[in-house]
Amino acid sequence: MHSTHAPRIAIVGAGLGGLACARVLQLHGRPVTVFEREASTGARPQGGSLDIHAGTGQLALRAAGLLDRFRALARPESQEWRLLDPATAAVLPVAGPPAHDDDSPEIDRGQLRGLLLESLAEGTVRWDRAVAGVTPLENGTWRLLFDDGSTEEADLVIGADGAWSRIRPAVSDATPGYSGVTFIETGLDDCDTRHPALARLVGNGTMLASAGSKALLAQRNSEGRIRVYIAFRAPQNWHLAARVPLDDTAAVRAHLLSMFEGWDESLLDLIRHNDGGFIDRRVFVLPAPHTWEHVPGITLLGDAAHLMPPVGLGANLAMLDGADLAQALLNESTVDDAIRAYESLMLPRSARAAQDCAKLLDELVPPEGS
């Protein structure tokens, strides 16, 4: 962008995509501000382990000048993928992990986010600044409205604020819908010492056992932690029909154990021995493909643009979106040209990815009777 005044760029959301965009812009001397509703970087747990693909997430990290630092933190051994027989826990022959390329080392999401945050100039991220919405101003600029009643103005607003984006309604009336699949997340700490048999069962990377429309996934994280996902098809409010209070760990555990009755005891131990409670993660998705008519001065990236099932592509695509949008802003002569160039790249790519992810979810947890 070659104008004399650098545009005021506001990124809403300090997730991986928004931070990747901010980092690439700053690397090239462009001013940018990130507004984040959470109070601080450690306000909540940052989720599990991510496999960062050579053709997407790693490209973004290279553009951000962070690929070597990522490699120093990543765990290539965690690419291991094992499929287990639900009835016997025997290891089955498997062609390879879904949606992976050969070079997809794992890293904890919190570590990756930390790497991006540390790379930004101090004060880039404004914490505890929850954006409630945006309104267009006459000259093609936008006003951000914050939960506390304050406002800011920007020449470009980038909605990087996830599934329930407050920015998305400015370009699209699409809202996420329930996919029919629920993931219950739990985990075990210090596995190698406290649960060596389970550590061996899971191996170095990701373990999957599935039967009918139910699946059990366990994923090695750093520092001996194993994260467990119990996946099944169910109505959105399954816990009400089952009379299971989600905050009652014992009740959730008993319900899950009854659902998985007949599975091998060692696999059921992943449900029995969890540390902490169970987190209900119903899988919501945006319509695929999700597209919109170009709106000047505003765009979306990551889950705000293309929320899809959590099968290994979302974080990679969000970072690539962020890097591509930053690159377009550096290359094109106006903000508007940059948005158009970025959207013409991102929208078809995310449409293909959303279809792939929907297919993978159906393979992982097939619809009843399919």
DSSP strand count: 17
Largest sheet: 7 strands, mixed
Please state how the strands of the largest beta sheet are arranged side by side.
5-4-13-14-15-12-16
Percent in strands: 15-25%
CATH architecture of the largest domain: 3-Layer(bba) Sandwich
Task: Identify low-pLDDT runs.
Answer: none
What's the CATH topology label of the largest domain? FAD/NAD(P)-binding domain
CATH superfamily of the largest domain: FAD/NAD(P)-binding domain
Distance N to C terminus: 52 Å
List the domain count as a whole number.
2
Category from helices, strands and their pairing: alpha/beta
Shape: globular
Count of alpha/pi helices: 12
Family: Belongs to the aromatic-ring hydroxylase family. TetX subfamily.
Cofactor: FAD
EC number: 1.14.13.-
Keywords: Cytoplasm, FAD, Flavoprotein, Monooxygenase, NADP, Nucleotide-binding, Oxidoreductase
Summary tags:
five-stranded parallel β-sheet, D-Amino Acid Oxidase, Chain A, domain 2, 2 domains, seven-stranded mixed β-sheet, alpha/beta, single chain, 12 helices, 33% helix, FAD/NAD(P)-binding domain, 370 residues
